[in-house]
Amino acid sequence: AQRVTQPEKLLSVFKGAPVELKCNYSYSGSPELFWYVQYSRQRLQLLLRHISRESIKGFTADLNKGETSFHLKKPFAQEEDSAMYYCASNVGNQFYFGTGTSLTVIP
Amino acid sequence: NAGVTQTPKFQVLKTGQSMTLQCAQDMNHEYMSWYRQDPGMGLRLIHYSVGAGITDQGEVPNGYNVSRSTTEDFPLRLLSAAPSQTSVYFCASSRGHGNTEAFFGQGTRLTVV
Hints:
The complex is a heterodimer of chains A (107) and B (113). Chain A has strands at 3-5, 10-14, 19-21, 24-26, 32-38, 45-49, 60-61, 72-74, 83-91, 94-97, 101-106. Chain A is an all-beta fold and 107 residues long. In chain A, strands 2, 5, 6, 9, 10 and 11 form a 6-stranded mixed beta sheet that branches. In chain A, strands 3-8-7 form a 3-stranded antiparallel beta sheet, with no helix packed on it. Chain A has a two-stranded antiparallel ribbon with strand order 1-4. The radius of gyration of chain A is 13 Å and the shape is globular. The relative contact order of chain A is 0.35. In chain B, the strands form 2 sheets. In chain B, strands 2, 4, 5, 6, 9, 10 and 11 form a 7-stranded mixed beta sheet that branches. Chain B is globular, with a radius of gyration of 13 Å. The A-B interface holds A 6, 9, 32, 34, 36, 42-46, 49, 86, 88, 90, 93-95, 97-100 and B 31, 33, 35, 40-45, 48, 50, 90, 92, 94, 96, 100-102, 104-107.
């Protein structure tokens, strides 16, 4: 079965510090990979996807096929980045979500 | 364009009661799915549909039924609510066919007492 692993349930960083949220996937092919963000009591929304190779709100994520990873990074964390982050893969139009990482940015 | 709309936002049920969580999308998406969100467990797929008239089970289907009579609607039915079904439920839709971003509803917070 497809699996997405986010090893950190909780992550705290100080404002202005770099942040990295880890994501590993298990799939031998070429999955579509996404990061979704959920701000407090709001719906999940797409943050970015590997196909577009874009930077959203200062976040980037690089697909590393050798390590089967899709880590989310931001060089300088902001307080408004505090949220729940989910890594997800899409294989055959089915989404597989990780268990999520709750990021807290400390002022 | 409202996107994905879920009703109700909050619901309290007694054990054994049944109810239907509504989900509607106005984006003409073929793919729709239901997830439950529990602390420490992320989002788990309950049921999904790849088009009108077609549904299939996800990871945690027991205790839930779905139907897809139209492209727009994908209701989730709890047959006999149990405390273990206390959760936040999210409906999602996606177009598929190479553009697979999932759009989520605002969620339904269900408590079974």
